[in-house]
């Protein structure tokens, strides 16, 4: 599988922002965003714009400790809800972030809220943050959403990496354990070529989670019954499932331990809450 380059991820921040802005024509700022309960389209734009500026500040200043995320959680109002003006503001922030990332280079040491500690983390995280929020905006206005296969693959890989951090698998008082014998999950994209390796095997049977690609998927290498739970769906729907976004009706097939899948999705999605 081809891994997206630093430059491609940086470029996607701007590209995905531009596509999101294209959804705003004729939209109402108060339009609800079904995939972000309680949010309006305006609120979504303010959140994403502040997120870009948050990341840009971290990289530009080479932050060595956490940068306050207050603006992300409670984004101030801008431009009195004018979507056209908000779109310009959003584009400005995305462009500034991309310029800062290019100037820093992938190996620049900087605080990150997840594993990595370099600007490379921020390029990847902001590319996929923007792509998913573009999906939220498209859903809010009823627009078509198409994500390039290589971008979606990289986004799922990023999620799988997040699923191995201690916050996911460490024991919690009163909470069911995530790790245990025989606990394996497989996620298989049904709309990609076998050589794409759009198949992910998550192993929770050891002392900590691990994951790897399994080219060809369960239909060629393993029956669904050999894993505790198997999920098969088109690639974009797999990504939406991971991010707790609506999937297209009938596109997701789940075989096996639904409770384990639900637990894993909740634990790996702790950072969405």
UniProtKB/TrEMBL annotation:
<dbReference type="InterPro" id="IPR024344">
    <property type="entry name" value="MDMPI_metal-binding"/>
</dbReference>
<dbReference type="InterPro" id="IPR017517">
    <property type="entry name" value="Maleyloyr_isom"/>
</dbReference>
<feature type="domain" description="MDMPI C-terminal">
    <location>
        <begin position="150"/>
        <end position="261"/>
    </location>
</feature>
<protein>
    <submittedName>
        <fullName>Maleylpyruvate isomerase family mycothiol-dependent enzyme</fullName>
    </submittedName>
</protein>
<dbReference type="InterPro" id="IPR010872">
    <property type="entry name" value="MDMPI_C-term_domain"/>
</dbReference>
<dbReference type="InterPro" id="IPR034660">
    <property type="entry name" value="DinB/YfiT-like"/>
</dbReference>
<dbReference type="Pfam" id="PF11716">
    <property type="entry name" value="MDMPI_N"/>
</dbReference>
<feature type="domain" description="Mycothiol-dependent maleylpyruvate isomerase metal-binding">
    <location>
        <begin position="14"/>
        <end position="138"/>
    </location>
</feature>
<dbReference type="GO" id="GO:0016853">
    <property type="term" value="F:isomerase activity"/>
</dbReference>
<keyword id="KW-0413">Isomerase</keyword>
<dbReference type="Pfam" id="PF07398">
    <property type="entry name" value="MDMPI_C"/>
</dbReference>
């Amino acid at each position: 599988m081809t891994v997206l380059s630093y430059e491609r991820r940086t470029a996607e921040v701007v590209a995905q922002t531009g596509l999101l802005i294209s959804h705003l024509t004729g939209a109402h700022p108060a339009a609800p965003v079904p995939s972000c309960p309680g949010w309006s389209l305006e609120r979504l734009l303010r959140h994403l714009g502040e997120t870009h500026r948050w990341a840009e500040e971290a990289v530009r200043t080479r932050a060595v400790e956490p940068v306050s995320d207050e603006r992300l959680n409670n984004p101030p109002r801008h431009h009195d809800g004018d979507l056209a003006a908000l779109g310009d503001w959003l584009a400005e922030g995305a462009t500034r972030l991309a310029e800062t990332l290019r100037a820093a280079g992938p190996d620049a040491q900087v605080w990150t809220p997840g594993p990595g500690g370099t600007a490379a983390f921020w390029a990847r995280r902001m590319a996929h943050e923007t792509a998913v929020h573009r999906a939220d905006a498209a859903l809010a206005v009823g627009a078509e959403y198409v994500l390039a296969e290589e971008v979606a693959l990289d986004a799922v890989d990023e999620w799988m990496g997040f699923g191995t951090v201690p916050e996911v698998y460490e024991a919690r008082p009163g909470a069911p354990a995530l790790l245990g014998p025989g606990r394996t999950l497989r996620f298989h994209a049904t709309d990609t070529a076998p050589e794409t390796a759009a198949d992910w095997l998550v192993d929770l049977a050891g002392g900590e989670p691990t994951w790897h690609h399994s080219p060809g998927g369960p239909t060629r290498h393993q029956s669904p019954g050999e894993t505790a739970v198997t999920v098969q769906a088109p690639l974009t729907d797999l990504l939406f499932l991971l991010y707790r976004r609506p999937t297209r009706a009938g596109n997701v097939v789940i075989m096996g331990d639904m409770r384990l899948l639900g637990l894993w999705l909740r634990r790996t999605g702790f950072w969405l809450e």
